[in-house]
Amino acid sequence: MAQPELSNTLRLKRLGIDTHQEAVIYMRRDCHVCRAEGFSARARIRVNAGVRSIIATLNFINSDLLAPGEASLSESAWLHLGAEEGGPVSVAHARSLDSLSSVRAKVYGKKLTDAAFGEIMGDVVEGRYSDIHLSSFITACAARGLDGGEIVGLTRAMVAAGQRLDWGAPPIVDKHCVGGLPGNRTTPIIVAIVTACGLTMPKTSSRAITSPAGTADTMETLAPVDLDLRAMRRVVEKEGGCVVWGGAVDLSPADDTLIRVERALDIDSEGQLVASVLSKKAAAGSTHLVLDLPVGPTAKVRSKADADSLSAHLLNTARVLGISATALQSDGRQPVGRGIGPALEARDVLAVLQCEPSAPQDLRDRAATLAGALLELGGGAAAGAGVAKANAVLDNGGAWAKFQAVCEAQGGMRTPPTSRHQKPILSETAGRIVTIDNRRLAKAAKLAGAPDAKAAGLELHAALGQHVETSEPLFTLHAETRGELTYAFDYIESHPSIFEIELLE
Amino acid sequence: MAQPELSNTLRLKRLGIDTHQEAVIYMRRDCHVCRAEGFSARARIRVNAGVRSIIATLNFINSDLLAPGEASLSESAWLHLGAEEGGPVSVAHARSLDSLSSVRAKVYGKKLTDAAFGEIMGDVVEGRYSDIHLSSFITACAARGLDGGEIVGLTRAMVAAGQRLDWGAPPIVDKHCVGGLPGNRTTPIIVAIVTACGLTMPKTSSRAITSPAGTADTMETLAPVDLDLRAMRRVVEKEGGCVVWGGAVDLSPADDTLIRVERALDIDSEGQLVASVLSKKAAAGSTHLVLDLPVGPTAKVRSKADADSLSAHLLNTARVLGISATALQSDGRQPVGRGIGPALEARDVLAVLQCEPSAPQDLRDRAATLAGALLELGGGAAAGAGVAKANAVLDNGGAWAKFQAVCEAQGGMRTPPTSRHQKPILSETAGRIVTIDNRRLAKAAKLAGAPDAKAAGLELHAALGQHVETSEPLFTLHAETRGELTYAFDYIESHPSIFEIELLE
């Protein structure tokens, strides 16, 4: 049963403190409200301004930054509440976080019900979970695992905690790659192919979780992606498809919060992965879905057995949610294309769409395979004829024309930025490349600044099986600041085994 | 392998923002250092001022609170660095948090080595773990459990990450209650008894984790407890014992950080409980230890089986650490004494020491039992003669005299504060009390403001087995603000089953 929230009013002053996504309220330590309510530093407080309300963490001000009777908010909280300088704000004890008992139950190995997931996700979306609570939920689910029923429960709860789009008549097609393979940026190409063939593909993509780039990060270097729902609908009505950032249209907002914490932990467990993927798809109104699962020793999915288990959970959950889905396993032993990082990947995408002779063939082949499967699943091609149709629409320029039209409709096509600093990494020996460590390459690209620095990352010059000479460049680092370039380079220096090279006999 | 930390210098301006224990650095978003280093909001940054260094979370300032070239620090970071207005501060990327891979290994069920615990605790004490990382470590250890070897490894790592006291010749006696039983405030009484009998008991106590009061919170209403090591030594040399807050003498500082997160999660797992207790004892230089384990359905330890398992882990870990220990199981079905909350418990302690006729007999009996066991373990009484000796020193006023002397030596005896607001809670029926819910009583006391509000909590008027009439008071709520009184009362109203009363035939 909910406890009442007692309230008190203060005047807002904007201090301009940006805490990123964390909602913080600043109050004088000697404020009458703090004394009356018994607030302590880092207390979680309900903050009401007008009709909107959030839960914020309390920071005290021990100086005259605030006058008596004044309070301030972190920038994200200010924007979320639509606050105004001098406007009134009321504060109250946040009611106790009852759903935390379900998190504890999971820690101790109990199965969670649909209702429990619903309460947790409701509290998450309301901002009632602090980082400590979010991290415990994610860690408990990863450590104890979620069974099939729990995955469905979590997915449904995540869908219910946000809005759900309706695009009218099916099929609404969609594609998702269960990440972990740097440079595997097929989505913009697939959207161009299948919408050129007349299917509807209103694609919402995510930003990077633990990788150097998400599709939204890459696409943002080619066109605006933070479209709201109205703008997205306009693009889809006009062109049949789009590639926008899912976060801006508030689909499964709980997922965005969980992803931020998963990123800090570098944890991405099976159950949460399935719920994350399918909650976004269900909320986006998708009816037909092709899943790409790259498998390799340093990909996210490391073995065929893991891929089979993940496929089974994905397909089962999709079925329960009423989505018609196919899962394809692909080679995940090395990166795809040449670029790793938002702008560098965008350049590969452009090369494939423009049928440049130098375009990376592996990226093209993967995009055509997935687009072909999607065409067949969504009724855009006869069984067995999908890949040929996809290749034809790439070769005849139809996909490139459609992609430019989509970018224009999203707000205007952009040229991906180029980096200010580069440094080639040379082979220390001569021989044949026998393994490439995707994870360490991705880490180097992140240390170089990707995905926040759009032009940062790396560009590969060598692939598995290739023979290289001593001092031949294996890849080139790209960074926007010298500090980040040095940082990434030092990481590579201390991890020389990113490329394993077998000496020639 | 450690990466280098690139550095840059700014001038400090004190803004007076109190974030509690979280270290935050404030920098202008357009600061040249942020641009050069590629810092993003909430990045973890190494901050150096003079010879000291901490890891802080970055908040951006989008206003003129800071001039170009200036930076600020949260109050705790300012104090920790010994910073000065206008003084120089240099910032750098914090090196990557390699020990997080061990946390992930634990999430996925691997056993952690002594070295892994050492690295994690080293990083925790250096402030390199954010709340997200700390919460994941605690949750993973709770969900996956720690085996005997891991508990020893964690305990040793926690001891090694702080200072370790040496009091000269053993025995150095100590006592610990594995909490969960409100009002069970035997420690100040036991210290008075055994030091009056000539044993050395330099007691360091904790503040509340998830309870309405820790021994340090209660003792603080009777005398200063935040003594540094020098002051503590002076008290022990003079009186043979003390009751001070362990946090002020920097024993097992990792434990204090972990406890803050456990408190937010209301999680306290077996392995961490053992490591927490014994790291403090080992660091405090204790050689002989009596453990009190209250067992009851709403105590922390719920069954004899749980108590046996916990005892075994505690005694095994103590043995490996070279501590001679005994564990006593006690009745944990209801609170001990009358008061719950710092000042209210202090009043019970005084009544027992002063042999007032109204003193709670259960508290006296428990203190005498534990003191007796400690006297026997530490050579202060013959086997079987400990309890009688403890009772004698209570009755002859020796313990009370010693307690006053200890309080004076700690900085002067205080009178516990009384609350500004009270509200009696009346029985709704007539009958016999058959159960009392310790957890809900504790929660009500916390909602009333304990332990931060020293006078807050509750005072019991009825015990298990007692007959009560309709409208007879079961307990009285105490609060320092009206808001908190209402808040606690509303909780009680919505949870009428705190006292289960069996109707009379």
What is the typical, i.e. mean, pLDDT of chain A? 92
Parts with pLDDT < 50 across at least 5 consecutive residues of chain A = 1-6
- CATH class assignment of the largest domain in chain A: Alpha Beta
In the CATH hierarchy, the third-tier topology of the largest domain in chain A is known as: Pyrimidine Nucleoside Phosphorylase, Chain A, domain 2
Biggest sheet overview of chain A: 6 strands, mixed, barrel
Quickly give the structural class of chain A: alpha/beta
Q: What share of residues of chain A is helical?
A: 40-55%
Identify the CATH architecture of the largest domain in chain A: 3-Layer(aba) Sandwich
For the secondary structure, the number of strands of chain A is 19
Radius of gyration of chain A: 24 Å
> How are the strands of the biggest sheet of chain A laid out side by side?
1-6-3-5-4-7
Number of domains of chain A: 4
Q: Termini distance of chain A? A: 75 Å
Number of helices of chain A: 18
Question: Please, what is the CATH homologous superfamily of the largest domain in chain A?
Answer: Nucleoside phosphorylase/phosphoribosyltransferase catalytic domain
The multimeric state of the shown protein is homodimer
Q: Could you tell me the strand content of chain A as a percent range?
A: 15-25%
Largest interface: A-B, 72 and 71 residues
Outline type of chain A: globular
